[in-house]
Design brief:
heterodimer, A: 313 residues, alpha/beta, Rossmann fold, four-stranded parallel sheet, 10 helices, 8 strands, 45% helix, B: 464 residues, alpha+beta, Porin, 16-stranded antiparallel barrel, globular
């Protein structure tokens, strides 16, 4: 009899304990913002400043196409008031799992806490035309998703985030909007310098591993010669690299840009055949320690491009 | 030394050579020396770079003196720009076409569910049991064949063809339906369920679904880490553990990922529950916990328990099923696509009461069975995996010493080439060591399996 009572007592305490854990009311006063990449998180930090806690799912040195849908990220998304993502199918291999697994209604598709930032960008580049299928590799049928590399898009994104944060937290609307405005002013001042420094290299042809750089090149008047990978996500073949090497020699191109999350061995081989240089660059904020926020990231890229392009004959 | 051991040594010494010297910087998916030789050959075949005859778009024959060519270049550049602009415009406006409008036709393709087909083509060779006397074709084993574990017949076959459709049904529900065809003939409804998130932290799933029991039993055949399911899973709960029921799956707000899943199931699983009464349900509880040990490594621990009435003669005969699983995944964040190491181990046990003998009043001996397996998967190049598995079925059953039991030890090795996430080719070797001859007539066998796995259509993201 006693043991039965004890059992029942312990059981009650155990159940109440579990329940109390479950119904702990959220006490966070700040907005919880989760960005899929460091670039979006960095822009959200510019807008949210100390009113928001901003986290990024992918690290700055991680390929945003290939992220594991780890349950720890589900916990992150579970506690989010606002979810920011690139869209255009960049995160389609893993974000749906995280949204479903998070059991957070507020950040689901169509909800106020769900923000696809490709909608804020004026012009999406490289939308394939005609029929698209998987023989083309990891093709993005809706266009190139690496639009955060253009600082003007950075401004647009910051404004979109400010607008959405104002809806979620109307009391601080003016702060979010003024933060976005301040960010715009800062970028615009910098942008003129950046353009002056890079525009003069518009005749240089650059080889890159992947087309991460389309928006950056479009903004600063730089040109691709070709890509090391045959098609997005498809490893190069000897023939492809040989053709590229011949073309590089013909057009006197001697700069190969390799984003830091792609292997460099093919770029190295190509460089060896063409006397070109391989430069490894980050594609995201925090991809290297120097690029700790959005402006210092773009600044770093402009510095490196200027430095490398002025070395070219 | 037994032949399977030699094979293991060769494969693992190869794989650990790779572990010892991981070239993170230049990931050698192919032999780079060979690659370079081919590239050199190709470059020689190309015309010398200063040849004026080359009919390249930017180097046309009429371009003779420098000044003209500069002008031509500029004109060409402007043309290229205009062409690009037009292309972009065409596509932008193209997507806004209202040709798909259904106002008049009523035929709407926009809201079709995302559909995918997955096919598993399998070629099998087994060293024993190919004759009419060896191949057992009784009903009990038939069931094992269709579930993709157990004895494999020599020959070619379609292991499974799976059709999956997923869509949001309305603002509350998300639905998923999976039909599977095994061995060409029969169609099985593997899954048909809806998911609903009523409020924060809670998911409700209803319909027929793979119940959250253990780790491996939740996987569709094409997601299996090896070509076949371990005997430890197939022999205890069936290689695929799907039931009709309702599951409530809250996330517990703890610093790590912790999910508890409560399920009420109809309990019609032939292997475990098959109550004679309609109002006897099976109940299942599962806990899944996952920790990030560091940013490259995760540890998952899970525990499962299910109970329900079984179909043994007499009432109130219960089956209890327990499971415990552990998975460690190492995948460096800066090379997610190129290298990973997965170690998984799982225990499963089923304890089945079989009623009381009416005449004597004695309890029949329980039918108990349990198994363990453990495997290691190592991705040593972007598209290449090497794997090894040990698998044992035969815990808890009271084999009489000296008599032939049904215990099975299995060693497996696998080499996989996954060109993309939509296609993979896998070669697997199994060595099975049976504890006695049983009625099959042999006590060990070798199996060689070759599987082609391909997916068409939408490809839903996989579980972690």
């Amino acid at each position: 009899m006693i043991s039965y009572k004890n059992f029942s007592f312990f059981k009650t305490v155990f159940l109440l304990g579990i329940l109390s854990l479950y119904f702990v009311p959220p006490t966070w006063a700040k907005l919880n913002v989760v960005g899929t990449t460091e670039n979006l998180a960095a822009l959200a930090k510019e807008v949210g400043q100390n009113l928001a806690v901003v986290k990024s799912i992918a690290r700055g040195y991680q390929d945003p196409h290939h992220v594991d849908p780890k349950p720890s990220y589900m916990v992150m998304v579970n506690r989010a008031d606002l979810l920011l993502y690139h869209g255009l199918d960049l995160e389609s291999a893993w974000l749906p799992q995280l949204i479903e697994g998070s059991r957070n209604r507020q950040i689901r598709f169509g909800q106020i806490g769900h923000l696809d930032l490709s909608q804020s960008v004026d012009q999406i580049l490289e939308i394939p035309f005609g029929v698209v299928d998987r023989s083309m590799g990891d093709v993005h049928p809706f266009g190139n998703p690496h639009y955060t590399m253009d600082p003007l898009n950075g401004i647009r994104i910051a404004h979109s985030i400010a607008e959405r944060m104002s809806i979620l937290d109307p009391e601080n609307e003016s702060l979010y909007k003024s933060n976005a405005g301040a960010f715009e002013t800062k970028v615009n001042t910098k942008l003129k310098q950046w353009e002056n420094r890079l525009r003069k290299f518009s005749d240089k042809k650059i080889v890159t591993y992947h087309r991460n750089w389309s928006y950056f090149f479009a903004r600063f008047g730089l040109q691709y010669l070709g890509n090391v990978e045959i098609r997005p996500g498809i490893l190069p073949s000897p023939r492809h690299l040989a053709d590229l090497a011949v073309e590089m020699k013909r057009q006197h191109s001697n700069l190969i840009i390799n984003t830091n999350y792609f292997p460099t061995k093919w770029s190295d081989l190509l460089a060896q055949k063409t006397n070109a240089r391989v430069v490894v660059l980050p594609a995201m904020v925090n991809g290297i320690p120097e690029a700790r926020d959005y402006i210092s990231f773009i600044e770093y890229l402009v510095n490196r491009y200027e430095q490398e392009l002025s070395k070219s004959p | 030394m037994k032949p399977y051991l030699i094979l293991f040594f060769i494969i693992f010494s190869l794989s650990f050579g790779g572990v010892a010297s991981p070239q993170v910087k230049g990931n050698p998916d192919v032999d780079m020396d060979e690659f370079e030789r081919l590239m050199d050959q190709q470059m020689k075949q190309s015309k010398p770079s200063n040849s004026p005859e080359k009919t390249n778009r930017n180097n046309r024959p009429f371009r003779v003196n420098g000044k003209t060519s500069n002008k031509m270049d500029k004109v060409e550049q402007r043309l290229d720009k205009l062409e690009n602009l037009n292309r972009q415009r065409a596509t932008t406006f193209g997507t806004r076409s209202n040709a798909l409008s259904t106002t008049a036709t009523g035929i709407n393709r926009l809201f079709n569910p995302a559909i995918s087909f997955n096919t598993l083509g399998l070629a099998t060779y087994r060293s024993k049991g190919n004759g009419p006397e060896g191949g057992e074709h009784d009903d009990e084993h038939e069931d094992q064949h269709v579930h993709g574990f157990g004895e494999h017949e020599t020959g070619f076959r379609i292991q499974e063809l799976e059709l999956n459709a997923q869509a949001y049904i309305d603002n509350y529900l998300r639905g998923s339906i999976t039909l599977a065809m095994h061995d060409v003939e029969d169609i099985e409804m593997e899954e048909a369920f809806v998911d609903f998130v009523p409020f924060l932290n809670l998911n409700i799933r209803a319909g027929k679904y793979f119940v959250p029991f253990g780790k491996h039993a939740q996987l569709h055949t094409h997601q299996f880490p090896f070509i076949d399911a371990p005997q430890a899973v197939g022999g205890v709960v069936g290689a695929e553990f799907n039931e009709v029921g309702i599951g409530i799956n809250p996330i517990i707000p703890l610093p790590w990922f912790s999910e508890i899943s409560f399920n009420i199931l109809n309990g019609d699983n032939e292997t475990l529950f098959d109550s004679q009464h309609d109002d006897d349900f099976a109940y299942l509880i599962h806990s899944k916990n996952l920790w990030d040990l560091n940013e490259n490594t995760t540890l998952e621990l899970g525990g499962s328990y299910a109970f329900g009435e079984n179909g043994s003669s007499g009432a109130n005969n219960h089956t209890d099923v327990v499971g415990a699983n552990m998975t460690i995944i190492y995948r460096p964040l800066n090379r997610t696509r190129f290298r990973s190491l997965i170690w998984q181990a799982e225990y499963l046990g089923a304890f089945k009461e079989t009623g009381i003998e009416k005449e004597t009043g004695d309890h029949n001996p329980d039918e108990n069975i349990g198994g363990v397996y453990t495997f290691l998967q190592y991705q040593f190049l972007q598209r290449w995996w090497i794997q090894g598995r040990y698998d044992f079925l035969g815990l808890h059953n009271d084999d009489v010493p000296g008599e032939a039991g049904e215990d099975t030890h299995q060693w497996s090795a696998l080499l996989a080439f996954a060109n993309s996430e939509f296609q993979s080719l896998r070669l697997q070797y199994n060595y099975l060591d049976y504890d006695g001859f049983g009625d099959r007539g042999f006590d060990h066998e070798h199996q060689l399996l070759l599987q082609l796995n391909f997916t068409m259509g939408a490809h839903p993201a996989h579980l972690y």
